[in-house]
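Thread amino acids onto this structure.
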């Protein structure tokens, strides 16, 4: 239960975390933000998409510069409810931590940003430029109806973002230790090799697709793609699924399916990777008459060179935590990949990521309170 001395950011986080917003359902989260921010003069533009996603573009002020906080209120499933110490959507404080699904990923950051923005507006009602929150309920799912859709709308309006902080949980060993200023690209592939089914005792009458692909798979999994760049680690290739056959030992399968992913840096483009992999396959006998590739790009690599916002954010983190953050591009993908296409500076900064998507997900009370202060100091320094 909330306490009488509970800070506004914890109270708002509790309200958001009480909404069972499993992607893409916002489950009342947007109304919570509306009730908190509308009285302070924030304008809400809300869109509901056919797949059930809710997007909100929340603004205060007008004109340039435009500073955006981007976040999501959807969460992954809690999983086995019996394994949680307390119910996943009943936020509970224990030992200085707030437990609930989405506490660190990332309703805590949303609450911190909303509180920081409201406090700034109350202290600077006639501030220059525009403050905005871009909030979606489709980040943990496919992501095509969420931030990507909002960015396309903003792009069509001719809107350019000067600075954006995405509130993903970025810190790993100590709160304040990491600002993510880029992400590697991600390319999914599916290879289908067509053989000829037959009896294992008569291999001369069949064509085994597993054997046909073996040289190519050995070559591609042992390949060193590059040595990385100034901002990115080396590109990597990983097979995630292989399937062939019918589960019996006496049939040579007719087809082999291999599903894989490449996380790549700026040494490559999506197009150059596809061309390279298909050429490798052909070199090892997997020509287009016996093999086919299917491709799906989920992210292109991007990097933000440190500028005014990054330096201001770094200073605020050091001032509040005593920790000097490192710039980092490791990890998976985030909505920053979409926003970076219309933004001068886009970085990610939020709480610790140790418990995201896990049973008993949690965030430190002091983390959220300090995160609010960091966001506030950043906005104030940028708009002074």
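Threaded sequence (384 positions):
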């Amino acid at each position: 239960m909330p306490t009488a001395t509970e800070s506004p950011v914890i109270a708002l986080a509790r309200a958001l975390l009480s909404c069972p917003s499993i992607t893409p359902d916002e489950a009342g989260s947007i109304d919570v933000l509306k009730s908190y921010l509308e009285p302070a003069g924030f304008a809400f533009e809300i869109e509901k998409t056919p797949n059930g996603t809710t997007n909100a573009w929340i603004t205060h002020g007008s004109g340039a510069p435009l500073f955006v906080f981007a976040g999501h209120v959807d969460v992954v499933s809690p999983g086995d409810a019996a394994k949680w110490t307390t119910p996943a959507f009943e936020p509970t404080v224990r030992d200085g931590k707030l437990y609930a699904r989405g506490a660190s990923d990332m309703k805590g950051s949303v609450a911190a940003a909303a509180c920081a923005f409201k406090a700034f507006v109350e202290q600077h009602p006639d501030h220059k430029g525009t403050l905005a929150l871009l909030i979606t309920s489709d980040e943990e799912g496919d992501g095509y109806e969420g931030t990507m859709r909002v960015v396309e709308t903003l792009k069509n309006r001719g809107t350019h973002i000067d600075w954006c902080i995405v509130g993903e949980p970025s810190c790993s060993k100590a709160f304040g230790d990491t600002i993510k200023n880029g992400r590697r690209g991600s390319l999914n592939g599916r290879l289908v090799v067509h053989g000829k089914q037959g009896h294992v005792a008569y291999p001369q009458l069949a064509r085994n697709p597993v054997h046909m692909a073996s040289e190519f798979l050995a070559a591609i999994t042992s390949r060193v793609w590059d040595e990385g760049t100034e901002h990115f680690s080396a590109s990597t290739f990983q097979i995630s699924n292989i399937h062939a056959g019918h589960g019996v030992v006496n049939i040579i399968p007719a087809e082999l399916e291999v599903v894989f992913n490449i996380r790549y840096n700026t040494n490559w483009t999506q197009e150059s990777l596809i061309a390279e992999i298909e050429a490798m396959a052909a070199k090892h006998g997997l020509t287009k008459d016996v093999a086919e590739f299917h491709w799906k790009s989920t992210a292109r690599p991007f990097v933000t060179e440190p500028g005014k916002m990054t330096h201001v954010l770094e200073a605020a983190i050091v001032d509040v935590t005593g920790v000097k953050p490192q710039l980092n591009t490791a990890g998976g993908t985030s909505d920053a990949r979409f926003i970076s296409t219309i933004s001068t500076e886009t970085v990610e900064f939020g709480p610790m990521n140790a418990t995201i998507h896990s049973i008993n997900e949690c965030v430190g009370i002091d983390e959220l309170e300090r995160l609010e202060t960091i966001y506030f100091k950043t906005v104030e320094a940028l708009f002074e």
